[in-house]
Amino acid sequence: MFIYLTSGTPEFMLSLQKKYSKEKMVVLYGQSSAILLHESAKKSVFSTPRSFEIIREINELDEHGFFVLNHIPVKSESRKLFEDRFYDRIHTIEDEPGFIAFRLLRPLHDETYISLTEWSGPHSYEAWKASGTYKEIYENDTNGVDQSNIFTSAPYAKTFITSRPEEEEL
């Protein structure tokens, strides 16, 4: 399975989702952009997507949630180490309140993995970030491995919602 991402105006993302209504697609709205997430076993319908292989997944993605895409730049020679360490710890997220789904995405054309989590809302995500589980997965467990040997730069997260921001205010 693969996930393909493309970005553009909210209107264009909605038009693509409507055009390919038989495909599994979710429009995600961020602070300054919208992206369309296409999950498929086939080639993407997008002309120039960011392409990822799903290498670990938990549950089905829902079209109504709070999405966090944690971008993690990993050195090519450290991919196996990163993936093995991530596999060993990510299962702990399943019991977190508000957790919906997870995907670990291996990049097909660059070095930045994405850890995609879906939550029932931003409060669930923030509660998880304050938990011991989060620290276990992302902060504490280095097993003596020098982080500079794995990552090319610091990870960063982008958050998205599945309803247009102006729709929430109504």
Q: How would you describe the overall organization of this protein?
A:
With 170 residues, the protein is an alpha+beta fold. It contains five helices and eight strands; from the N terminus they run βαββββαββααβα. It has an eight-stranded antiparallel sheet. It starts with a strand and ends with a helix.
What is the N-to-C order of secondary-structure elements (H for helix, E for strand)? EHEEEEHEEHHEH
Principal-axis shape equals globular
Radius of gyration computed on alpha carbons: 16 Å
Strand residue content: 35-45%
Q: What is the terminal separation in angstroms?
A: 37 Å
Instruction: Quickly give the structural class.
Output: alpha+beta
Number of helical regions? 5
**Portion in helices:** 25-40%
Q: Give the low-pLDDT segments.
A: none
User: Main sheet?
Assistant: 8 strands, antiparallel
Instruction: Report the average pLDDT across residues.
Output: 87
What is this entry, summarized?
This protein has 170 residues and is of the alpha+beta class. Helix content is 26%, strand content 35%. It has five helices and eight strands; from the N terminus they run βαββββαββααβα.
Please name the defining characteristics of this protein.
alpha+beta, 170 residues, globular, 26% helix
